[in-house]
From TrEMBL:
Gene: ffh
Coiled-coil intervals: none
A single GO BP: SRP-dependent cotranslational protein targeting to membrane
InterPro entries hit by this protein: AAA+_ATPase, P-loop_NTPase, Signal_recog_part_SRP54_M_sf, Signal_recog_particl_SRP54_hlx, Signal_recog_particle_SRP54_M, SRP, SRP54, SRP54_GTPase_dom
Subcellular location: Cytoplasm
GO (cellular component) term, any one: signal recognition particle
Protein name: Signal recognition particle protein
Predominant localisation class: cytoplasm
Domain notes: Composed of three domains: the N-terminal N domain, which is responsible for interactions with the ribosome, the central G domain, which binds GTP, and the C-terminal M domain, which binds the RNA and the signal sequence of the RNC.
Amino acid sequence: MAFEGLAEKLQSVFKRLRGKGKLTEADVEAALREVRLALLEADVHFKVVKDFIARVRQRAVGQEVLESLTPAQQVIKIVHDELTQLMGGQQARLDLGGAPPVPVMLVGLQGSGKTTTAAKLARLLARQGRQPLLVAADVYRPAAVEQLVTLGQQIQLPVHAPGTDRDPVDIAREGVAEARRRGRDVVIIDTAGRLHIDDALMEELERIRQAVAPREILLVVDAMTGQDAVNVAETFHRRLGIDGVVLTKLDGDARGGAALSVRAVTGRPIKFVGLGERVDQLEPFHPERMASRILGMGDVLSLIEKAQAAFDAQQAQRLERKLREQTFDLEDFLEQLRQVRKMGPLDQLLAMIPGLGPRLKDVTVDEGELRRIEAIIQSMTPEERRHPEIINASRRRRIARGSGTRVQDVNRLLKQFAETQRLMKQVTGAARRGRRGLGNLPFPR
C-alpha cells in the first residue's frame, strides 16, 4: 500500500512523543528531524519537505503548545493539519458546469492508466446521475481503442471509437458532436500518451484542447513513479494548464510522495485516486481523510460511504429482521460476504478503522479464504444453506468435491457458522430480556 512506510515511521515518531508526557523544544526538534527524514524517504519533493517542516516548527515550538496539558497531541494535530493543507486542504470537485455536453480531457504518459481511468470516471459520473460518452482518441497505442470499447461494454456506457486511421483532433471534435446528438451531458476524452514527454505529444494535446475547449483537463499520474510524477505534472501544467490530477496505482507498493508533492509543486489539486484495477476502484480524493490514514487515525467517513454504496437499505432491514428473529442462515451469510467484498480489499477496509491500521502491519488478509468460503456455500443445495444441521458426512464430502476444497474446510466453516449463530442468539435474547426489564421500570410513557 502507498504511504505504508511513511505511515509506519510517522506513527512510531508520535508514539515516542506521546510517551514523554511533558515536551521540550529539543523533543519537538528531534521529532521533526525524524519526520523530515521519513518524508524524504517517501519520495516527497525536498522543497516541499523543507517548507512543510518550517510551517510545523513555527506552530509547534511555542509556549501555548509546549505548556499545554497534552503537548504531544497538539503537535500531532498540527502535523495532521499541515499534511491536510499540503494535499489541498479540502476536496476539489470536478467542475462540470456550462452547457452540455461538457468535455473532460484525460492526459498523461503511456502506462499511467488513462484508458482505465476514463472508464472508471465515466462509471462514477453515471452513478451520480450523469450521462457520459467515452471518446477513444488514443490511436497510437496498440489495442487502446479496443480496450476502451471493452471497458465501455463492461460498464454499459457508449464509446465513440471511429478507428485508428483518423486524426485524434477530429475524433475528439466528432465525439463532442456525437454526445450532443445522443443527449449525453459529459464527454470523457481518452488521449494518447508517450513513454516520455516530447513536443509531438504536447502539440497534439494542445490541438485537441483548442478543438474541444475542455472544461477540465485531468492529468493521470502513476503514483509508483515517485519524483518523476512531480516533474511530469510540472511539464504538463506548463504546456496545457491542467485543472487537476488523478493519482493511479495508489494501492501498489509506492512510497506515496507524489500525492504529497504534486499539489504543492503545481498548485493543482488531486481530484481522484485509483486504488485498484477494478472499474469501481476510483475515489474522490479527500486530503483530510488521507492525512488521517497516514497518521493511523483511520478513515471512518470513507468506510461509511463504501458501506452505503455497497449495501442496499432493504437488504439491511431484512438482515436486521432475520438477526432479531434468529433466522440468519448460510444464504444470508453468503449475501453479506458478497456485499463486503464489493466494498474493496479487506486490508484497505480494516486500515480505515481508527487504531487498527498500525496493528495490521504484519497481518496478511487472505482474500483466497473468502473465495473458498463462497465456493463452499455455493456448492450446497438451497435446503442445506437454510438448514446446515442436515449436512451429514456424505453431504460434506459432496460439498468439498463441488467447491474444490477439503472436507476439513467444510467442517471448519460449519463449526464457525454454528458458533456465530449461538452468539447471535445470546445477544438477541439478552436484548429482548433487557427490553422486558425496562418495561417494568417507572419511566414516563
